[in-house]
Specification:
The structure is a single chain. This protein is α/β, with parallel strands linked by helices. It contains 6 helices and 13 strands. The strands form 2 sheets. Strands 6, 7, 8, 9, 10, 11, 12 and 13 form an 8-stranded parallel β-sheet that branches. Strands 1-3-4-5-2 form a 5-stranded mixed β-sheet. β6, α2 and β7 form a beta-alpha-beta unit. α2 runs parallel beside α3 and α2 runs parallel beside α6. The longest helix has 15 residues. The radius of gyration is 20 Å and the shape is elongated. The protein starts with a strand and ends with a helix.
Length: 233
């Protein structure tokens, strides 16, 4: 399936932007009357026919629409501190998008080693993963958010914080159930501070473990996403 991201599509006829047009005509060597698929990131999957195979402004005609294509029965929001090596964060966002996720929030914590992120770059990584994994929904990407602001914001669902401190914690797989919205916090390489864990607990977050292994921050994010996905299959 040749899939193109077209978030501003509204009419029956649509002109791909220059980048997508080049990929469609020059790279894939598609021509007039060939069929492609478009997604708007809001759940609509369009079947379209190429009517003008121009390499800079390819025009297509939408001939079929599937609404809510493979819509999930739950909402998953992961708020994770970006890693010092931003490529690891990009990898985590790519893999979570492939598995299935609704929302990402880069989290600024007390022990965060990275305090600045390029949202545009991360958005492109997510978009590429959406297209590669044939998703009709584009995950929401929020700006870098302070820990205190995130945990005090309202959320309709279960809230979890994963950390490595000793104490009573429950494995996420024993708490997560089907069709249940979830917000999961993943800390930086140096973990959350004890004060942050206590503040999260005071704001209704349940303390969780993701297993006995000591995981990299980005690995923890992917495993958490996969546990939620498996609970809904």
């Amino acid at each position: 399936m040749n899939l193109f991201y077209t978030p501003d599509i509204e009419d029956k006829f649509y002109q791909l932007n220059e980048v997508e047009s080049k990929h469609c005509i020059r790279v894939l060597r598609l021509k007039e009357d060939d069929q492609i698929h478009l997604i708007d990131g809001k759940g609509n999957l369009f079947t379209a026919k190429i009517i003008d195979a121009h390499p800079k402004r390819c025009t297509v005609e939408c001939i079929e629409t599937q609404a809510e294509f493979e819509k999930l029965d739950y909402k998953l929001h992961i708020a994770a501190a970006p890693t010092k090596n931003i490529e690891r964060t990009e990898w985590y966002m790519e893999k979570c998008t492939e598995i299935g996720i609704d929302e990402f929030t880069p989290l600024l914590c007390q022990f965060s080693e990275r305090k600045v992120v390029k949202i545009e770059r991360l958005f492109k990584v997510i978009t590429s993963a959406v297209k590669q994994s044939l998703k009709a929904y584009h995950p929401k990407l929020n700006e870098l958010t302070k820990f205190k602001d995130l945990i005090s914001a309202p959320f309709d669902g279960e809230k979890y914080i994963a950390h490595c401190y000793e104490g009573e914690k429950t494995h996420l797989k024993h708490l997560c159930t089907a069709k249940q919205n979830a917000l999961i916090l993943i800390g930086p390489e140096g973990d959350f501070s004890p004060q942050e864990v206590e503040l999260a607990r005071a704001n209704g977050f349940k303390e969780i473990t993701l297993g006995t292994s000591r995981l990299r921050a980005e690995t923890a994010g992917v495993i958490a996403c996969n546990i939620v996905s498996l609970a809904n299959q």
